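Need tokens for this chain, all 695 residues.
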Amino acid sequence: MKKNRNGKRRQLKAGRLYEKHKAAREMVGKFISTSSGGIFFEEKTDGELAENKYYVDLELTMGAMNGDKVKVKTVGRGRDVRVTEIEERAVKEVIGTFYEDEREEDCFYVEPDDTKLRFAVYVTENKSGVSVKDGDKVAVKITYYPVDALDDAGGEVIAVFGDGCTRSANYSAILHSCGVITKFSKEAEEEAGRYEHSVLTPEGREDLREKLIFTIDGADAKDLDDAISVEKIGENYLLGVHIADVSEYVKEGSELDKAAFERGTSIYFADKVVPMLPVAISNGICSLNSGVDRYALSAMIELDKFGEIQKVTPKKTMIRSKVRGVYSEVNELIEGTEGAEITEKYAVLLPDALENALSLYTLLKRKSERRGALELDSEEGKIVLDEKGEPIEIVKRDRGTAERLIEQFMLCANEAIASWLTEKGCPCVYRIHEIPDREKVADFIKFAHNLKLNPEYVKKESVTPRYFGKILEKARKNGIGYPVSYMLLRTMQKAKYSERKSGHFGLSSECYCHFTSPIRRYPDLSVHRILSYMLECGSASETSKKYAPFASRSAKQSSECELRALEAERSIEELYKTIYLSRHVGEEFDAVISSVTSFGLFCCLENTCEGLVPLALMKNRYWYDEENMTLSCAAKTYALGHKVRVIVKSADISSQKVDFELADEPDSFIYTNKRETGARRSEGSMRRIKHLRSK
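Here are the structure tokens for all 695 residues:
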């Protein structure tokens, strides 16, 4: 006799052996919501999540929400689990649209914007202090959580943003949802103001004001935190990367420091910047404007003729930028298309300084390619606004040689400073990018193989950036560089900050940090603070004693703030793109298929706007091939990188959801038998074809 899952005994059939059921295992970890229930990742002892996935059926979620910390128990012998307890709720507030329930008088509810939240929030009270109307975008604090997958939540309105169809209401809701802090305290503003008209002296610093130092930034940039100088010394180069010494003004524990730590990073939107530091600091005393004296931390880096670093000397300096360079203008100089006005402006750099910079950039770029650093194809859209702040045009942002040159110099400085601090035995806030997990690598290799990119065999645990680079190179030749880059990005781990050195996989660098943008990133400011102290006291042990705990706190906070900022920037960009497309409903555009799923095709327009062609809007019956990532009917197959013509069907501003419709889809659906041309497949054969039916 043997017990079944309910503990009751059952008769074993003669002649058959049954394995004992293993005892149910209990685990604690993170719940990720899906359309069919959820995915569970166990939490390890160090707080990280294990790679292995477990699956939760919808009926066994106990109302768990996306991101909740839950306790689960295994079900059967597979990788299925059921939620037994919700230990910590991740969702405390919900952003959504307020509606009056037509079925019941004085009954109101909020429909969440987040589609992963499968419930409505019934409103018990309005604590916002502002009247709320049907269709308003609101924030509700949850006071009652669902007890199962079919239950709804209860909550109180705590903020009203206005009509859910307007740009301003959705903009404000995104800032609220992402926890973006837009105002500084009175104390922080006053502290910044005291530095605004500071008198600078070179005392205790190396005076580099006579050196040919210059900046290159975007035309609309106001927080200029990096400048460069390049000299030729025989066959070698001396690269100076001069960064605004923000740590001189933002002292540890000050009101400015508290404000910067809380924000973690500046956030850049189409219409404005939400700065990490008050304008008096970011655009004032710390901005390396031309013709004015500024305090800097300079990394003087000697490189050989192959671009290899020979020596690094960090210094506390005083500098005076000679030219305020602009990317577009410098690109004209490089291409030889500049006018007389630009030639006159940059005369001090011509020809030697610019030629030296270009020559060193070429060496650094080749060095980066040699070691296999990944360069993913990313397409950024520039949103052009009218005087009212409404999007009137979206164009693809181009990166010229000047942009890439500055990028290479900053990468070089970041690596040089991280290595210098490490060699000295000092703490550092490292920028790390861990090796991708084996399961995701295996999936990507299969994906690349099915796209006929023919990746060579390699052990999943020993992949290198160079290996992925070869696949990307083939993808670019086949015209599918962008979608393959997108899939590779999803394969990678997220880069983050850490007090422990573990290398940067994507850059193929063993030691890397962020040093070059202390005006807008707290980890860079943290590195400056540690570096300055080391330069002043000269003792690695004292520096470690003072700043090792700080490096750990800074890394954790900076990683969290970065994710919040990225979410806000992405959401605001999607909002503007949705508003733009809402004015082009019914119009046709050329597009490229950027992703193929079981529920439709994601298509990207030339201007980087993206939308979904839902299966429900497709005329024919299709079947989805997961391995090859295709949707097919007898007349047509849709795959990654295919060019299509789409019609903008709808663009919902409230949810930032855009639906396209195929303009060139075949009209009829005909199954053909390859063996008997023209003959229809039998009904039995039709039923055996795995396909998805339009609804």
